[in-house]
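Table S2 (text version). Query chain:
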Amino acid sequence: MRHFKARWGFFLGVVLLVLALFIIKTRPEFKVKHVIILDTQFVDKQWVFQVMNPTSNDNIIFYPRFRMNHRLQKHIPPIHHVKFHINIFSQTLEVRVVERTSFASVIAYPYNYIVDKEGIILNVNQHQDVQSVPSCR
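Corresponding structure-token output:
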């Protein structure tokens, strides 16, 4: 009889957990309403927003932060990593961009490349074109 009560309690706990996850996943109170992109100096905020492509169906609690971090690093070379902060009450997703720091300037006529310690070119735009940078003479 004791095992029956324990199994019933476990089953009830699992059902309540699944029900709570379903409610959190489907309720409009847990959807992303606002996306704020912070701490960008050289990377255009519109470029970050375009790569993220947030939709109104994105859940603020189950937002794919790890996958989005890798996606932004892959598509926007000057980004070192991204930190996500969520505010459930205002349904706001804050994206804090940490950009790579320049290490050297490589002049290969007619371009001037700004690179970091890993050799990644930092002065590129969304079309992967090198942006012109004034050089000191």
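Notes on Table S2: Strands lie at 34-38, 79-87, 92-99, 104-108, 111-115. Residues 2-26 form the longest helix (25 residues).
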